[in-house]
Amino acid sequence: MEKKKNLVSEISDMSGVSQKYVKAVIAALPVAIKNQLNENEKLNILGFGAFKKVHNGPVERRNPATGEKFISEEKDVLKFKASPTFSF
After folding, report:
1. What is the model's pTM?
2. Among 19, 58, 72, 84, which is 20 to 30 Å from 8 by CA?
3. Between the CA of residue 35 and those of 21, 29, 43, 69, 78, what are the distances in Å?
């Protein structure tokens, strides 16, 4: 993936850490965030943003093609809100 390669290269150049280690950190980050959210409802990373686990209950929905009504399954979803210092 070209974009990931550019990100790895830029982080490596800025931090002075090898690209191999940066790739390992980027690969581990989603797993670490998921593990933290399994233990807690919210994870704040100062200067980056906040991840929050939200539970969505079952909701009555309608298939637009057939008009058939059904109940969606309940599930946990991830919400992210960027830090104000992370804005463009």
Report:
1. 0.71
2. 84
3. 21, 10, 10, 35, 13
DSSP the chain: -HHHHHHHHHHHHHH---HHHHHHHHHHHHHHHHHHHHH-SEEEETTTEEEEEEEE---EEE-TTT--EEEPPPEEEEEEEE-GGG--
Per the listing, tokens 């209950």 go with: 57
Mean pLDDT of the chain: 92
Q: Which residues contact 15 (CB under 8 A, 6 or more apart)?
A: 22
Return the pLDDT at 2: 76
Name the percent of the chain lying above pLDDT 90: 83
Model pLDDT, residue 86: 78
Q: 60 is written with which tokens?
A: 């009555």
